[in-house]
Amino acid sequence: xxxxxxxxxxxxxxxxxxxxxxxxxxxxxxxxxxxxxxxxxxxxxxxxxxxxxxxxxxxxxxxxxxxxxxxxxxxxxxxxxxxxxxxxxxxxxxxxxxxxxxxxxxxxxxxxxxxxxxxxxxxxxxxxxxxxxxxxxxxxxxxxxxxxxxxxxxxxxxxxxxxxxxxxxxxxxxxxxxxxxxxxxxxxxxxxxxxxxxxxxxxxxxxxxxxxxxxxxxxxxxxxxxxxxxxxxxxxxxxxxxxxxxxxxxxxxxxxxxxxxxxxxxxxxxxxxxxxxxxxxxxxxxxxxxxxxxxxxxxxxxxxxxxxxxxxxxxxxxxxxxxxxxxxxxxxxxxxxxxxxxxxxxxxxxxxxxxxxxxxxxxxxxxxxxxxxxxxxxxxxxxxxxxxxxxxxxxxxx
Length: 398
Hints:
Radius of gyration: 25 Å
Number of strands: 11
Largest sheet: 6 strands, parallel
Order of helices and strands: EHEHEHEHHEHHEHHEEHHHHEHHEEHH
Strand content: 5-15%
Strand order of the largest sheet: 3-2-1-4-5-6
Number of helices: 17
Structural class: alpha/beta
Mean pLDDT: 96
Distance between the termini: 42 Å
Helix content: 25-40%
Shape: elongated
C-alpha cells in the first residue's frame, strides 16, 4: 500500500464562485486533496443550485462541480459577513472568484488587492472576457462565448450551426484555472510568493479553437461545418448499420485506407485507384468515398461492423447515447464509478481523470447543502457560538 498523500493535502482554498467555470476548477482541487471552503449567499447560494432538479431533486450542474467542498453561507454585502470572508481568505493558500465584473473589486476580494495584503496567497480571477478591453463589461454566459470564440461557426451541419452540447467555454476556463493554481503553487514552492492568476472564458476557448483558427488564418479559409464528418479527412463520418445503429470510423492515413479497402470494403483495387488512394483525393470525392463505406457497413449490425473494423485495424466507435456512457463497459472494467454523499443520499459519480497509481484515490466527499458547514467553519475561525447565533438571527450567515 502506498504512503503517498494526495498532492494537495494541506492546501486550503476559499472560493466565492457560481455556475460552472470556477466551481469546476475548485472541485478538481478538492478531488486532489485540497480543503475547499465555498462561500455562498444565504438567500439561495450558488445560482447553479437552481438550474434543474434532475439529480434526484438536486441540480445536475451543482452535483457535478461541487463535491468535496464545505458550504458556508455568508452575506458579503454586510460588513460583518465580509469581515468573516476576509478572515477565511487570510488563512488560505488559494482564493478563487468568478463574480460579475467589478463585484470582487468593490468587496476588496479581487486578486490584486488580496495578493498585496497576503504575499503567499494565490488569487484567481475568472472572468468572461478579461479585465480590460471593449468586451470586459459584457455578460459572458457559456453559449455567448462559444459564439464569440467561433466554436459555433465550426460545429453543426452545413445548413445550421449549433453550440456544443456541453458548456465548453466554462469547462475550458475551469481547466485553465485549475492548472494555473497548480503552476502558481509550484512557483510559490520555489519563491515563497503567490500572486494573481487571470483566466477568461474567451481566452480559454480561443486556445481550444487552435486547429480551425490556424487553418483559417494560414490556409485562407476556415474548416467547413460537416456534422460528424471531418473537414479535411475522409472517410471520417458516421455510417448506418442494419440494426439502426451508427458506426463512426476515421481513416487517418493512406495505409489505413488500404486496410479498409481490402478487409472491410472487399475492394482491394481501391487501394491504388487514383480517385481514392490519397486523402486529398478521397476528400475531393467525399460523396463517392462515403458511398463505398456506407454500402459495405449497411448489411452489418453495429457490433458486426465494429468487429470487422477492429480486425482491420481501422479506428472506429459506436455513436453512444448519454445512457450508454453511464453503462460504458470500459468505465465499468476500470472501476471508474463511485458513490458520493449528498443531501438526497448517495449519488453515482465518476472518478476524476487524473490518476496517481502510486497514491490514494482522489477524494470523493459529499456534495454540501447550502450552509451545511457554516457553524464548523466559523468555529474554526474562533467565532463564539453566541456571535454565530446573532449573525444568523440578523441574516448575515445561514
